[in-house]
Design brief:
about 300 residues; 4-stranded antiparallel β-sheet; 6 helices; Jelly Rolls; about 25% strand; binds fe (ii) ion; globular; alpha+beta
Length: about 300
């Protein structure tokens, strides 16, 4: 149950993107801040339109991958691994009937699209590499930013699934840890349609799990610290289209099922510092002709 009495630190987005000392202090304390009106609504609409075009061009018969944060089923899937340098589509668990056919139109069945739109699609590239975001990232102290992963999350009405509490550095690990998440609200998000929820200050505790690829190619997640993530202390990050939620790679977060009749589209970017080491065991690897890039 979300803690209704607390709220996350929120600010009007700075015009040039650079975080003020007050914003930076709030981020360091809570591990998460909300910037209101960071992205122009028309840029959100353009991203949504481009996403519709990509979905229209996608043939669902070509893949039966689906995403489940509970089972990690997708992590052993070659299609998933390849999507680190491509644009892949992943279905909701409840999208298929017993015969393995989609229960409804593909537009209402996809959980997410990932993970390299920002390096492959020109419009996603433009959305992800604005001067304001570059200034914001610099003001967070990231000296050599690399945009490693992008995801467009659909969270469709009624079947948009729960994402259990986790830390993103589990999957986007560097030594030392440098992952920062950027969650852009493309639709309005509230508790009814499964907004993000964070445990304020939870980033100060250790990383609990580490996901990596074994020499045999299997993806495994090891428990490296069994302290609880305290998801009962989570606070909703309600957001309007154009708002940006910035969160530390260790910030515990989750989201409930979308039980509403509204979609909850969001775009996420993850950035690491290129000065840190990117382990060869991370699931996400790029071929030589599509290296990680900055702004
Ligand atoms: Fe996450």
């Amino acid at each position: 149950m979300a803690n209704e009495k607390l709220s996350l630190p929120e600010f009007q987005a700075p015009e040039d993107g650079r975080l003020s000392v007050e914003m930076r202090t709030a981020f360091d304390e809570a591990g998460v801040i909300v910037l209101r009106g960071f992205t122009e609504r028309r840029a959100c609409e353009a991203l949504q339109t481009r996403t519709s075009e990509l979905v229209d061009a996608f043939d669902p018969r070509s893949v039966r991958s689906f995403f489940s944060s509970r089972s990690n089923v997708q992590l052993g899937d070659d299609y998933f691994i390849r999507s680190g340098a491509d644009i892949g589509f992943f279905f909701e668990e409840d999208a298929f009937d017993a015969a393995g056919d989609l229960k409804q139109d593909k537009r209402h069945s996809i959980n997410k699209m990932g993970h390299a739109m920002h390096d492959i699609d020109p419009l996603f590239d433009e959305f992800s590499r604005t001067p304001e975001l570059a200034a914001l990232v610099a003001s967070l102290g990231v000296e050599h930013p690399l945009l490693v992963q992008s995801m467009y999350i659909f969270k469709p009405p009624r079947i948009g699934g729960e994402v259990v509490c986790h830390q993103d550095s589990t999957y986007l690990y560097t030594e030392p840890e440098t992952c920062i998440g950027f969650w852009f609200a493309i639709d309005d998000a509230d508790e009814d349609n499964g907004c993000m929820q964070f445990v304020p200050g939870g980033h100060k505790a250790p990383l609990r799990r580490l996901n990596y690829r074994t020499a045999e190619g299997a993806l495994v997640t090891d428990v490296i610290d069994d302290a609880p993530l305290n998801d009962h202390m989570s606070v909703p990050a309600c957001a309007a289209r154009g708002d940006l939620v910035i969160f530390h790679g260790r910030a515990p977060h989750m989201s409930a099922q979308n039980r509403s009749s509204r979609p909850r589209h969001a775009y996420t970017l993850h950035i690491v510092d290129g000065a840190a080491q990117w382990p060869a065991q991370n699931w996400l690897q790029r071929p030589a002709d599509l290296p990680f890039r900055g702004f």
